[in-house]
Design a protein that fits this description.
The protein is of the alpha/beta class. It has 5 helices and 16 strands.
C-alpha cells in the first residue's frame, strides 16, 4: 500500500527509491527484561528474521540498493549486552545479503553503536536523505528540515487500540500527517515484542508529534496493511 505516491508500506517497513527503511528494532530487549526479573523467551531474532523474509518476498521483483535502520538498532543505553552483540551482528548479516549497503541512523538508545557498526563496516549517521526525503530517528528535530518536503521518523512506536465489545486489541501502525507544512510519516517499531505507544491514550514523546494529531491518517499493520482513516475518527470508537 502506498502511504504517499512515491513511498510504499511493506509490512513494518517503507520502500522508496530502491531503499528499504525500518525503525526501532531494539535488539536485546528480551535480555533487558530478563535482568528485571521478567522471564520472556528470547525469540525476538527468529521472529524478526521471519518478518524480514516476508518483506524480501513481497519485494522480490524490486531492487533494494540500501537498507536503513532508522534508529535504536539495539536496546541497552549503556554497555553492549551479550545478546546485543550476537544478535545485532546476525541481523546485520541478514540485511547485507539483500542489499548493497546497510545504513544505521543513530537513535536515542544507540549511545554505544560504533563497535557493532565497525565489526561489519556499516555507516552510522545522524540522518539519511535522498532527494527531498529525510529519514531521521525523531527524538529531536534537526536544523536542516527546510531542505525536505517529506520526513520519516521512528522513535514513537505508534500503535492504536481497537475495541470490539469487551475485547481490546492493540495494533502497530504507521501515521501520516504534517509537520510545519511537510509530509510526516511515523514508523512503528520493528521489534515484535514491543506493542508500542497507544497514540489514542499514552504520552507522546517525539517533538515532531507535539501537536494535534486528529487529522493524521492511520495505517494498521496486521496480516496486511489496513487504511483506517483519520485518528480523530478512532477517538470516537
Amino acid at each position: 500500500m502506498r502511504i504517499l505516491p512515491n513511498i510504499e508500506i511493506v509490512d513494518l517497513a517503507l520502500y522508496f527509491n530502491s531503499i528499504l527503511v525500518m525503525a526501532d528494532v531494539h535488539i536485546g530487549y528480551e535480555e533487558a527484561l530478563n535482568k528485571q526479573g521478567i522471564m520472556v523467551p528470547r525469540l525476538q531474532l527468529g521472529e524478526m528474521v521471519k518478518r524480514m523474509e516476508k518483506i524480501f518476498k513481497l519485494l522480490k521483483n524490486k531492487n533494494i540498493q540500501r537498507i536503513v535502520v532508522n534508529g535504536d538498532l539495539k536496546h541497552e543505553f549503556g554497555a553492549i549486552s551479550e545478546q546485543e552483540w550476537r544478535n545485532t551482528l546476525k541481523f546485520l548479516d541478514l540485511l547485507a545479503k539483500h542489499c548493497k549497503e546497510v545504513i544505521l541512523i543513530k537513535g536515542n538508545h544507540d549511545t554505544i553503536l560504533g563497535p557493532i557498526a565497525k565489526k561489519r563496516d556499516v555507516k552510522v549517521l545522524d540522518y539519511f536523505s535522498v532527494g527531498k526525503i529525510l529519514v531521521v530517528h525523531g527524538n529531536k528535530v534537526p536544523n536542516n528540515i527546510k531542505n525536505y518536503n517529506t520526513i520519516i521518523i521512528g522513535h514513537e512506536h505508534p500503535a492504536v487500540s481497537l475495541k470490539e465489545g469487551a475485547r481490546v486489541e492493540q495494533f502497530k501502525c504507521f501515521l501520516k500527517g504534517k509537520y510545519k507544512g511537510k509530509n510526516l510519516i511515523v514508523q512503528p517499531s520493528f521489534n515484535t515484542i514491543i506493542e508500542g505507544t497507544d497514540i489514542l491514550r499514552d504520552e507522546i514523546l517525539s517533538p515532531f508529534l507535539q501537536q494535534n494529531l486528529d487529522n493524521f491518517d492511520v495505517y494498521i499493520v496486521e496480516d496486511k496493511v489496513y487504511e483506517f482513516g483519520k485518528l480523530k475518527n478512532l477517538r470516537k470508537d
